[in-house]
Design brief:
By secondary structure, this protein is mainly α. The protein is 69% helix and 0% strand. It has helices at residues 15-26, 30-38, 45-69, 76-84, 86-115, 125-144, 147-170, 191-204, 211-214, 222-251, 254-257, 265-273, 279-312, 330-348, 353-389, 394-420, 428-431, 433-452. Helix 3 runs antiparallel to helix 10 (222-251) and helix 8 crosses helix 16 (394-420). The two termini are 28 Å apart.
């Protein structure tokens, strides 16, 4: 396992920048596009959002503890490899890599909704594809200039994207109409099925809780700041998520949310709050455009971090480990952005923007749920070994129970997402499209692993945590 660099020049991201990376990656375009995707389920989607929040917080707490034990580049990949060896490590690295570039493709498609508030309002497919490609390659260009520039862009875009969310999650709550929450379930299925289906989409909006752990090699004082950024960023995101979603569903009737003309749902809600006209919606749309660029900026860096860490361990081709004169893994950035571009083009072939977004969202979520689940299994294994190998009092046992409970919740959440990630549609290839696309991308990794087997470096076990190191927010040890 390649350890986190000790060079101060390489540890560029401060605590505010790391927190901004978390929040900027979580609060991208997913939340702004969710009401449109949730419209077929109805307001019952808010229950799914609440459950997804519980799972996201569990993942954040779990990654915070695990990053103290193993503050290595790669996050979930590094944990799986240290816990279960190279084969499982490679599978998790490849799966998470798929999640990052497929997720970037989904963010770009959702970003198009709001860009088309100003240009290409008719949604011509060629224009939508062109806009999405611009959204992918501009952040790639920013990342190629260096981590320092990426971090500065991330802070400012994170600040700007909070404007529409804070307004709707506070002032917008006064414009809620109870009648807009009826009917509660529009899916035609049972409440459990509707919640499960909506929760699978909701998970995408929380992808990013792991990004500080993935980029640990670029974070200053990672044993402390990765954990703090993960918890602070996730909790702050969760608050504005839940309140703003309640506001949008309470302001805009569910049947109106389902209209293609209203796919920029936060802009529609802002116009209703403003009493008509389009000026408020235009401001929100502009803020979301900035938000999307910020999310794509952060995720573009993450798309190259796992291949970089895996290549340094011999699992990925060596080209992924080479740094440019700017100190960034340029090949990984370009390769990942190219794959996201292909996913966008394929996704738009013969289908609508809504289906493209949902399919890419579920594909990315399936691919992320695999390393999330393995991370939970690793954490349970590590904590069980800690508990058996040391003599301690009730305080340590209580902490063991808490850590294992959090990991079990994260595991259940990941498995539930895998189960419910079917698409809606009348044809089998649309319904099962997310699994087919994720499975096809994963299968490509099999020959890559077979070609790399003889060049793998041994996985280094993670260290045991001392008694004072389990508290991750605040002082270094208490």
């Amino acid at each position: 396992m390649v350890p986190v660099s000790t060079s101060p020049a390489e540890r560029t991201l401060t605590l505010p920048q790391s927190t901004a990376l978390i929040m900027g990656s979580i609060i991208g375009v997913g939340i702004f596009s969710l009401p449109y995707s949730f419209a077929s389920y109805g307001p019952i989607s808010l229950v799914a959002m609440g459950l997804a929040t519980v799972g996201a917080v569990a993942l954040a707490l779990m990654f915070a503890v695990m990053s103290r034990r193993l503050p290595a580049a790669g996050g979930p990949y590094a944990y799986a490899r240290a816990g279960f060896g190279n084969a499982v490590g490679f599978a998790n690295a490849w799966s998470y890599w798929i999640a990052t570039w497929a997720g970037n493709a989904a963010i770009a498609v959702g970003w198009v909704y709001y860009v088309e508030h100003f240009v290409n309002p008719g949604g011509a497919v060629g224009g939508s594809i062109a806009i999405a490609l611009v959204g992918l390659w501009v952040p790639a260009a920013v990342n190629l200039t260096g981590v320092h520039h990426m971090g500065r862009v991330q802070v400012w875009t994170t600040v700007l994207k909070f404007v529409p969310l804070v307004i709707l999650s506070t002032f917008g709550l006064f414009f809620i109409k109870a009648g807009n929450f009826v009917p509660w379930n529009l899916s035609g299925d049972s409440s459990l099925s509707a919640i499960g289906g909506a929760m699978a989409i909701a998970l995408f909006s929380y992808l990013g809780v792991e990004t500080a752990a993935v980029a640990a090699a670029k974070v200053r004082d990672p044993e402390r700041n990765v954990a703090r950024a993960t918890i602070f960023g996730t909790l702050a995101s969760a608050v504005v998520y839940l309140l703003s979603m309640v506001a949008v569903f309470g302001i805009v009737p569910a049947d109106a949310l389902a209209l293609d003309a209203n796919k920029a749902s936060y802009s529609v809600a802002a116009n209703l709050v403003a009493g008509g006209g389009s000026w408020a919606g235009n401001i929100v749309a502009l803020a979301v455009v900035v938000s999307g660029l910020g999310a794509l900026n952060g995720w573009t860096m993450i798309t190259a971090e796992v291949p970089l860490a895996a290549a340094q361990d011999g699992l990925f081709p060596s080209r992924f480990s080479r740094l440019s004169s700017r100190g960034v893994p340029a090949f990984g950035i370009v390769c990942s952005t190219a794959l996201a571009s292909v996913a966008v083009v394929i996704g738009y072939m013969g289908t609508s923007g809504s289906t493209v977004f949902t399919t890419l969202v579920l594909m990315a979520g399936i691919s992320a749920a695999v390393p999330f689940a393995f991370s939970a299994l690793v954490q349970i294994t590590w904590r069980w070994r800690d508990e058996r190998g040391q003599d301690h009092g009730s305080r340590r046992s209580a902490r063991f129970a808490l850590d294992v409970s959090v990991a079990v919740v994260a595991l259940i959440f990941s498995i539930a997402f895998l189960f419910y990630s079917r698409n809606t549609g009348s044809t089998w290839y649309v319904v099962w499209g997310p699994y087919l696309m994720a499975g096809g991308a994963f299968a490509v990794g099999i020959p890559v692993y077979l070609a790399r087997r003889g060049r793998l470096t041994p996985a280094v076990p993670a260290r045991a945590l001392a008694d004072g190191e389990y508290v991750t927010v605040g002082s270094r040890s208490r």
